[in-house]
């Protein structure tokens, strides 16, 4: 009898502890400032299972680099390119523990030039992720074969020469997503603050609410740098721009998607304007905000929001100027919601809206209209990527599309697909993801 009572007592104590713990977790998650002393311990406890999972699945234990994804056995490659088309991409070298950056020809896979970035030569500022997991995304090549590279989501951006020697490094901010040439030997890159607390992430801004809570959120920056020196020339916070121009509701007015704490805007592309036009001026920049489903045309010289595209896109990436009146946008077409996912048959005759593919949209400033590009082919093959995604329309009408999450690359036009490609790896069953490949119809060296 005594043993039974002991077991019952232990069970009651455990249930009581779990109830109190659950109550505290709920209050901390809701941001109740009365429980702020418990925030750090709760974050450690909640993140512990994920930390264990991350360690067990890390490339250091599994031997599979984080840039590798499982291959699709049903995916059939082919290449009918009849012209030279060049791509610039980074590849992790497992044996050498460095990043290979290759300028290659999509038509025949010939490597035109190759660079190497090692951790030792880089003076790598190691926050998170670590060097093997911080791919070089959307690198820039100059007419002297120098290369601007950044290790994504880390405070490391560098210029290396044609022989892979470091010319300059910059560790001012965490750099992420895309990078493009601006006017007068400058570059534009997406940035955010270096984390004070790696678990919390790069916040950069705070706001005190009516109930006294101080809440952190990530501030993304439009960053312009001098190509020759790596010095920062311009830095402007995206949410700061929106708030000052009367769009406070865009920053604070809605919850961000699950998995993106403190990240209300999520800057993922900056497209500089290099020539004057009817709808923009040289020196303007387009920038894409994933979590707000908008693309903004901004004029840094006068601090002016010239235009906001509210379009029919969801969680979009990669805005490109394609004509004097048009821009193209990669529409991930991803619906993010906290609604319950319904499994199995529905017991009521309710309408179902189906999203089957990502798409490329073209906006015309002249008549304020959107149209899709090669959409029927993207839908037929169900080409989609939840995050990232990249497109480039060429002068002959062909379009490069990067299905980044699954590691697949396509060239397509209105008549159909011209190429379907993946990067094979030394590990059976895995392919290497493309890292926002920069494409060139012609080389300037």
Word description of this protein:
This protein has 445 residues and is α+β, with helices and mostly antiparallel strands. It has a domain at 1-56. The protein has seven helices and 30 strands. The protein has helices at residues 2-29, 39-56, 59-62, 119-122, 238-244, 248-252, 375-380; strands at 68-70, 78-79, 86-93, 98-105, 111-118, 140-141, 147-150, 157-160, 166-170, 174-181, 186-192, 204-208, 214-218, 220-226, 232-237, 267-272, 285-289, 294-299, 304-309, 317-321, 326-331, 359-364, 369-372, 390-393, 399-403, 408-413, 416-421, 423-424, 430-432, 438-440. The strands form eight sheets. Strands 2-27-26-25-24 form a five-stranded antiparallel sheet, with no helix packed on it. A hairpin with a 5-residue loop joins strand 14 and strand 15 (232-237). Mean pLDDT is 87; it is low at 50-58.
Major sheet description: 5 strands, antiparallel
Could you report the average pLDDT, rounded to the nearest whole number? 87
Q: What is the end-to-end distance?
A: 88 Å
The number of distinct β-strands equals 30
Query: Strand order across the biggest sheet?
Result: 2-27-26-25-24
Labels describing this entry:
single chain, 7 helices, five-stranded antiparallel beta sheet
Task: Provide a compact summary of the structure.
With 445 residues, the chain is of the alpha+beta class. It has helices at residues 2-29, 39-56, 59-62, 119-122, 238-244, 248-252, 375-380, and strands spanning 68-70, 78-79, 86-93, 98-105, 111-118, 140-141, 147-150, 157-160, 166-170, 174-181, 186-192, 204-208, 214-218, 220-226, 232-237, 267-272, 285-289, 294-299, 304-309, 317-321, 326-331, 359-364, 369-372, 390-393, 399-403, 408-413, 416-421, 423-424, 430-432, 438-440. The longest helix is centred in the N-terminal third of the chain and has 28 residues, at 2-29.
